[in-house]
C-alpha cells in the first residue's frame, strides 16, 4: 500500500504562523521534500523536529520527482513544503502532485499562510473578486502580453515582484494599466512589515527615490467597467502595434487583441498600416 503526499503550508515570515496540524504532519511523515533544505531546517529546528529532508525545487529533474514517487509507492509518507506559503502557488510542487495522481497516490492538503490572500485582505481594495497573476515574466514579449491581457480585467489583481525589478514593473503597469490605486505590501508578518497605499504613478515616484527592500505583493485596482467596455479602435491598434514591436507576428497580435477587445481580427489587421 502506498503512502500519502501532504501539501503543507508554512509561514510566510513569522514562524509562529504555522498551524498545529502542519507541525503534527511534519513530525509524523517519513520524509520532507523541501524547496530549500536550509530554510526548512531552520523551521524544523525551531520546533525541535528531526526529519529526513530531500531537495525539491523548480529546477529539479524528472528523475528527482520519480525518486520521491518511488518512496511514496513503497509506503513512505511525504510532506512537500516551500520556503514560505503554499506549495504550487508561484512555488514548486505541480509536477510532483500530478505524478501522484497518475500513480493513484493520495494527496492531502494542510493549509497555511498565503502572501497573496494576506496582502489582499489588508489592501483596502475590493476583495469580492480577484485574480492571482503571480510574477511577470522576465522575457519582454511575454511580459507585455501578460500586461496587455490583464489591462481590461475588472477584478482586483494580485502580483508578486522582487525588489530589484519593482520600479521597472511599476513603470510598465503605469503604461498599460493607467494610474490606478495600488497597495504595495512587503515583508508581510515580519518585523519590517510595510503596506503602502497610493496610486501607481505615486509608487513610481516614491521608488525612484527609495531603494526597494524585501519581497513585494502588489494589489492593483481592476479596470473600471466603462473603461473595459469602451476601448476605442485607436487603443486596440496601439495595443496591437506594441505586441508587434515586441516580436509578435501581426496576425497573432491582431488575434490576441481582438479576443481581448471584441474588435474583429480582420478589422485590426486592415487598419494596421
What does this structure look like?
This protein folds into 3 domains: 109 residues, Cobalt-precorrin-4 Transmethylase, domain 1 (3-Layer(aba) Sandwich); 109 residues, Tetrapyrrole methylase, C-terminal domain (Methyltransferase, Cobalt-precorrin-4 Transmethylase, Domain 2, 2-Layer Sandwich); 40 residues, no CATH class. Helix content is 42%, strand content 18%. It contains 12 helices and 10 strands. It has a 5-stranded parallel sheet with strand order 3-2-4-1-5, with helices on both faces. Helix 6 links the parallel strand 6 and strand 7.
Number of beta strands:
10
Structural class: alpha/beta
Question: What is the name of the CATH class of the largest domain?
Answer: Alpha Beta
- Low-pLDDT parts are none
Distance between the termini: 66 Å
Average pLDDT score: 92
CATH arch. level architecture of the largest domain? 3-Layer(aba) Sandwich
The named CATH superfamily of the largest domain: Tetrapyrrole methylase, N-terminal domain
The amount of helix comes to 40-55%
Morphology call = globular
- Please trace the helix and strand order, writing H or E for each element: EHEHEHEHEHEHEHEEHEHHHH
Largest beta-sheet characterization: 5 strands, parallel
Task: Estimate what percentage of residues fall within beta strands.
Answer: 15-25%
Task: Name the strands of the widest sheet in spatial order.
Answer: 3-2-4-1-5
Helical stretch tally: 12
Radius of gyration (CA) equals 22 Å
Amino acid at each position: 500500500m502506498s503512502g500519502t503526499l501532504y501539501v503543507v503550508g508554512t509561514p510566510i515570515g513569522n514562524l509562529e504562523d504555522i498551524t498545529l496540524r502542519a507541525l503534527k504532519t511534519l513530525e509524523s511523515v517519513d520524509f520532507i521534500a523541501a524547496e530549500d533544505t536550509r530554510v526548512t531546517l531552520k523551521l524544523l529546528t525551531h520546533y525541535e523536529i528531526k526529519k529526513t529532508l530531500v531537495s525539491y525545487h523548480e529546477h529539479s529533474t524528472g528523475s528527482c520527482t520519480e525518486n520521491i514517487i518511488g518512496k511514496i509507492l513503497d509506503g513512505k509518507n511525504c510532506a512537500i513544503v516551500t520556503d514560505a506559503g503554499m506549495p504550487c502557488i508561484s512555488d514548486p510542487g505541480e509536477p510532483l502532485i500530478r505524478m501522484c495522481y497518475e500513480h493513484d497516490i493520495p494527496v492531502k492538503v494542510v493549509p497555511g499562510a498565503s502572501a497573496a490572500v494576506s496582502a489582499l485582505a489588508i489592501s483596502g481594495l475590493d476583495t469580492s473578486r480577484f485574480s492571482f497573476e503571480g510574477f511577470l515574466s522576465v522575457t519582454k514579449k511575454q511580459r507585455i502580453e501578460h500586461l496587455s491581457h490583464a489591462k481590461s480585467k475588472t477584478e482586483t489583481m494580485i502580483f508578486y515582484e522582487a525588489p530589484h525589478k519593482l520600479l521597472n514593473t511599476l513603470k510598465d503597469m503605469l503604461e498599460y494599466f493607467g494610474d490606478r490605486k495600488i497597495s504595495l505590501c512587503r515583508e508581510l508578518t515580519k518585523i519590517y512589515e510595510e503596506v503602502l497605499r497610493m496610486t501607481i504613478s505615486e509608487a513610481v515616484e516614491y521608488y525612484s527615490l527609495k531603494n526597494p527592500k524585501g519581497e513585494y505583493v502588489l494589489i492593483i485596482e481592476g479596470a473600471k467597467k466603462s473603461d473595459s467596455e469602451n476601448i476605442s479602435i485607436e487603443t486596440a491598434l496601439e495595443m496591437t502595434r506594441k505586441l508587434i514591436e515586441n516580436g509578435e507576428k501581426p496576425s497573432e497580435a491582431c488575434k490576441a487583441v481582438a479576443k481581448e477587445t471584441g474588435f474583429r481580427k480582420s478589422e485590426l489587421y486592415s487598419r494596421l498600416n
